[in-house]
Each structure stands twice: as C-alpha cells, then as structure tokens.
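pasting for the record
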Amino acid sequence: MGGVNRTKSGGAVGANLFAVRSHNTALVLDLLRAAGADGISRLELAERTGLTPQAVSKITARLREEGLAAEAGRRASTGGKPRTVLRLVPEAGHAVGVHLDRDELRAVLVDLDGAVVGERRRALDLGAGAEAVLGVVAAAVEGLVADVLGGGGLSGVGSLLGVGIALPGPLDHARGVLHRVTGFPEWDGFPLRDALAERLGVPVVVDKDTNAAALGLAVGGEGGSFAYLHLGTGLGAGLVIGGHVHRGARTGAGEFGHQVLQLDGPACECGNRGCVEVLCLGAVGRGEVGEAARVLGVGAGNLVGLLDIDLVLLGGRTVGAAPEAFVRGVAEVLDARARREGVPGGAVPVRVAPGGERVVAEGAAQLLLAPLFGRAGV
C-alpha cells in the first residue's frame, strides 16, 4: 500500500484536478471536523492540504451551499484584515449504525461528528430467518430515524447518508454477502446488503462487527497498530495495521475466535475442536471468568507474536460484565510471554475499548461517515 504524500505542515496532499474533486473535498471536510466549533480559516485549509487558495475557496463555497459548512466567526491575523473561519455543521448529515448480534439488535443514529443523537435496542433471533430479521432491522431503523429526524420514509430524509450493518462473520464486505455465520449456516450466501438496500431505499454497507468497531476506534483516535477483541455471544478480532483496517484479500481477516488451542478440546459450532471461542465461552458459562481471561490472553498472545501490534483493546458484552478481570487476565498472559521472550519495552498494553456496548453500532455508522471524510480505510 503506497504512502500518502504530505505537505511541509504534515497535511495530506490534495490534487488540483477536477477528476479528484471528491478527494479534495474529503480532505477539507476532515479538517473542518477536526477543528471543531472553533473552526479553521481557508488559508489554514490550503496550507494543510497543499491545495491552492482558489481551490479551497471553491470547495468551501460548495460546502456552504450544501449546508455542510458555515462561518464560525473571525480570527485575528498577523497582518491585514481578520480571517473568516469555517466550521463543520454536524446536523447536516446523519448515518445509522446497526449491530446485529445473535440475540440482540442495537441501532444508533449519529451526526457528522459521530455523536449519537438517537438509539434503539431490542431482542433479536438471528436464526429466525432472513425475512423476519430484515423486518426487525427495517422497523428499528425506520422508527429511529422518524423519532429523531421525522419524515415519511428514509429516502425522504435528505440528511441521511445510509445505514451501516455490522454482524458476526465470516462475510464478504465488498459484496455485502454473508458466509457461514457460526451457529447460523442458513445465512450462507445471503446478499444482506442488497436485500436491505432494496427494503430501506437508502445505501447500505455491511461489515463484520469487529471490523466496524475497529474502524470506529481508529477514526476516534486510536493510532498505530492494534487489535480489538470482541467477546460477546461469540469471539472475533478487528485488526488495524499501520493505521488501516485490515480485512484481508477476501475480507475474511479477523476470524480470531476459531484458532485452535486444544486439539482434543470441546467441539465448536464452526466444526473444529478446542477453538479459543468455545474454550472462552465455556469457562464463562461455568463462572470461571479468570480462566476465560487466561484463554483469551493465550489467543491474544498468539496475535501479538504474529503481527507485532502496539495495543490490545477488549470489548463486547461478556467483557463488559467483568472488565477488570479480563484486562488483568489477558495482561498477565502477555506479561509472562514478554518476559520469556525478552521483548524490548515489555508487554503490549491491554485495556477496555472506549464506547462500551455501543462500540460496534457506532463503528457501523462510520462505515458511511468515514468515506465522506476520506477515511474509508483509515
């Protein structure tokens, strides 16, 4: 993957070409969002993007016409008249993020800043069949948008960018097609993205729950290379390598829960025996949280050794029920491994991911928002 060219001030270089106008607009939007309510001047936008002042003026004029940017006052300059500063208008755009778990649906509506402005949560049976599940999702999304934004249908809400759906894998992110979801083989080959887009009448993006969470965490400021380990009704990993979400050539990376730790272990629903997922959830079911954390730590240690990542983040409903125990147990395993191997700088840090139980749903919304700001791959 090629690097991004930078200006002297460290900003990403935009190209003054009509053909990549959307790229340049995304650069400007991202800087407006980062500036917050204080805003940023056109001159600063030009300096940080490498675009000409004329190009920036055209982009910001168009953004103001579309309601995405507005004046945020004036700022004193070192010479001449005060500079007008611009800010992003968060309420000018919205996205829905939906987390489909095996037994629960959580939907959030977020604005352009990623702030949650509405939420719905309800029970769900992922094994109830496609038609029933699609009906539950559609009702939740339509109800949430109507409650917050009004309107007679999703397609009539001008500020709605679309809906991001995150659920257990494996799946094909590029085509929005599910594979053999662990425990629910009947979903194999189902075109979830297209089916929902037809039903809702707005753009839909589908990704694994762990990838969506990892994207949201990276957009939210987690830098470098890290793994997000999600332990809820199942176990998976979202990987950010060098600042980019790593989905793999077939978008199948992160099936962390089905690495085999015990060849003669208990049968897993994936068809193998002794997977880290079945061992973890089995220990939790017996009330042995410390053992579950140790097993998770062994799996995390394998991941750290393989990818040399900087950080391990833990999330999911099961972790949320005993966060300190899981952080402590995983950290102890990684500490012991680092000591054995004499790793310079010590063990990779472990902590609970920010965002709580909404981390996947908020990340699903970023599947729509991130491309608008030029951060689709982060």
